[in-house]
Amino acid sequence: MLIRDVIRDREPYSMKATASVMEAAEFMAQRKIGAVCVLDEEGKLIGVFSERDLLNRVVVPRHDPSAMQLGEVTSKLRAVIRCDETPQQALERMEEIGSRHLPVVDGEKWVGMLSMRDLLRVELTSHGDEIKLLQEYIQQ
């Protein structure tokens, strides 16, 4: 299985750097997501805005989220995962940078976001398939 298989049927969530932090928080809350990719005006990936960024860069310093642009508080891009890489490679990369989210790219183009939850779902599915096979084997 490759990363493209993991994110295949999902809408790629993103916001422009010029959006307000409040708009980003509302966007994330409505979709029940913990991070969103941030794009410049040309649609180029510039970073990731997460719940942690909201807490540490907006709420704790007591900034007004309606008055701040997303680009002011977005974490710089530290790593990405390519569509043709594996979930294991994604997990290792997340561990290296200490993040639960990785933007997904296809060549130079941003195509989606991968979360730790996605990787857990892949792992559970593969174990579920193994258990089914073992049960079928035992019942024979």
CATH superfamily: CBS-domain
Largest sheet, strands/sense/barrel: 4 strands, mixed
Count every helix, treating DSSP H or I runs of 4 or more residues as helices: 6
Uncertain segments: none
- Radius of gyration over C-alpha positions, nearest whole angstrom: 18 Å
End-to-end Cα distance, whole Å, is 29 Å
Number of domains: 1
* Secondary structure: number of strands: 7
Q: Assign the CATH class.
A: Alpha Beta
Could you tell me the CATH topology label. Answer: CBS-domain
Main sheet: which strands, in order across? 1-2-3-4
Which architecture per CATH?
Answer: Roll
Mean pLDDT: 91
Helix content: 40-55%
Shape: elongated
Structural write-up:
This protein is of the alpha/beta class and 140 residues long. It has a single domain, classed as Roll (CBS-domain), CATH 3.10.580.10. It is elongated. The model has no long low-confidence stretch (mean pLDDT 91).
Q: What's the arrangement of secondary structure elements?
A:
Blueprint: H1 3-6, E1 14-16, H2 21-31, E2 35-39, E3 45-50, H3 51-59, H4 70-73, E4 75-76, E5 81-82, H5 87-97, E6 101-106, E7 109-115, H6 116-139
Parallel strand pairs: 1-2, 5-6
Antiparallel strand pairs: 2-3, 3-4, 6-7
What attributes does this structure have?
alpha/beta; 7 strands; three-stranded mixed sheet; 6 helices; 140 residues; CBS-domain; 22% strand; elongated
Short description:
The protein is built from 6 helices and 7 strands, in the order H-E-H-E-E-H-H-E-E-H-E-E-H.
